[in-house]
Specification:
DNA-binding transcription factor activity, single chain, 14 helices, Arc Repressor Mutant, subunit A, Tscrpt_reg_AraC-type_HTH, elongated, Jelly Rolls, HTH araC/xylS-type domain-containing protein, alpha+beta, 11 strands, 3-stranded mixed β-sheet, Homeodomain-like_sf, 6-stranded antiparallel β-sheet, 2 domains, DNA-binding
Length: 307
C-alpha cells in the first residue's frame, strides 16, 4: 500500500495539480478530470494511505469502488463529503471519482483564536474514519457545492480586511450543514444502526462470558469500536441515534443487569459480584448500583428474598 504524507497545503495542492495556494494556511479548489485521467485512475487499481498536517474537506462523486461502514457496503454513487483532521490517517482503495471534485484545506493556525476553532472540536465527523463518510442527497450536494463556490469566490477576490471573516462565516455554515446532514444519515440508516447496536451488545456479552470484566475491567470505547471496525466517535453517535443513550450509559445498563443476576445467585456476595464486574473496590460498585436502581445491592437482595 502506498503511503502519502502532506506536511503543508502547498504539497497537497501540488499533488492534486491545483494552483499554488494564495494563502499558505488556506486553499480551496475545484479539480476536473478528463476522460483519459479517469481511465488512468481506473486502471491504476491501487490502495493509498494518506495523512496531512491540516484540516481537509473534500466533496467527490464516487463512480467506482467501495466505501465500507464497518462490515457493510453501501452504494456510493451520490456525492460524498470526506473530513480529515490534522495527523489523521485515512485509506482509499479502488476508488474512482467523477470529473468534478472540490477540495478545501486549512491549517489550525488559520482558525487559531477564532470562534470556529472552539466549534470545530464539537464536530465529531472530523474524527470519523474515511469509511464513515457523509453521503449527500442531490439537494444536499447542491447546498454544499454552493458554499464551496461562495468560499472560492471570496478566496479569489482581492484580499482585504473582510476577506477572512467572510471565508470563516461560509466555512462555519458548511460545517453546520454537514452536522445536520450527518444526523439525517444516522436517522435514515436505522437498520444499520440497529445492526451495529446489536453487535455492540453481543461483544459485551462475549466479554462478560469470557470473564474479561473481572480480568481486564470495563472495556474501553476504543476497544469496543475496534471490535466493530468503526471509529469510537462514530460508534458513540450511532448508538446515541439508535437508543437515545450514550455508549457509556449502555455499558452501565449492561453491568447493572448482570449485577442483578449475580446478586440473586446462590451464595452470592456483594464484593464477589463487584470484582466479577470489574470493580476494584466494592464500595464503588455499591454506589453505582444505588445510583442506577435507587437501592443498595443489599437492599436489592433483601427485597428479592421476600418475594
Amino acid at each position: 500500500m502506498k503511503e502519502i504524507k502532506f506536511n503543508t497545503i502547498s504539497e497537497f495542492t501540488e499533488a492534486q495539480q491545483l494552483p499554488e495556494p494564495e494563502n499558505p494556511l488556506f486553499t480551496i479548489g475545484q479539480k476536473k478530470l478528463n476522460d483519459q485521467e479517469i481511465e488512468d485512475c481506473i486502471s491504476s487499481n491501487q490502495e493509498f494511505s494518506y495523512s496531512n498536517k491540516f484540516y481537509l474537506i473534500s466533496l467527490k462523486r464516487i463512480v467506482s469502488g467501495e466505501i465500507i461502514y464497518g462490515r457493510t457496503k453501501y452504494d456510493s454513487s451520490k456525492g460524498t463529503l470526506l473530513f480529515s483532521a490534522p495527523n489523521q490517517t485515512y485509506k482509499v482503495k479502488d476508488i474512482v471519482v467523477s470529473s468534478e471534485s472540490w477540495f478545501l484545506a486549512f491549517h489550525e493556525d488559520f482558525i487559531r483564536g477564532e470562534e470556529i476553532q472552539k466549534l470545530i472540536k464539537n464536530y465529531n465527523y472530523f474524527n470519523y474514519n474515511v469509511n464513515e463518510a457523509l453521503h449527500l442527497s442531490p439537494k444536499e450536494e447542491t447546498t454544499i457545492k454552493s458554499i464551496f463556490k461562495n468560499i472560492e469566490v471570496e478566496y479569489q477576490n482581492n484580499q482585504d480586511e473582510f476577506s477572512k471573516d467572510i471565508i470563516l462565516t461560509h466555512l462555519e455554515a458548511l460545517l453546520k450543514y454537514a452536522d445536520r446532514f450527518y444526523k439525517r444519515q444516522f436517522l435514515n440508516r436505522k437498520d444499520i444502526n440497529k445492526a451495529l447496536f446489536t453487535r455492540f451488545t453481543e461483544i459485551l456479552n462475549e466479554y462478560f462470558e469470557n470473564d474479561q470484566f473481572e480480568q481486564q475491567g470495563m472495556p474501553s470505547m476504543e476497544w469496543l469500536a475496534a471490535q466493530l471496525e468503526v471509529s469510537h466517535r462514530y460508534m458513540r453517535d450511532t448508538i446515541k441515534a439508535e437508543t437515545g443513550k450514550t455508549a457509556i450509559d449502555q455499558i452501565n445498563m449492561f453491568v447493572i443487569e448482570e449485577a442483578k443476576n449475580l446478586l440473586l445467585a446462590p451464595k452470592a456476595s456483594i464484593s464477589g459480584t463487584a470484582y466479577k464486574l470489574g470493580f476494584e473496590y466494592p464500595q464503588y460498585f455499591s454506589r453505582m448500583f444505588k445510583k442506577k436502581t435507587g437501592v443498595t445491592p443489599k437492599e436489592y437482595i433483601d427485597t428479592a428474598s421476600l418475594n
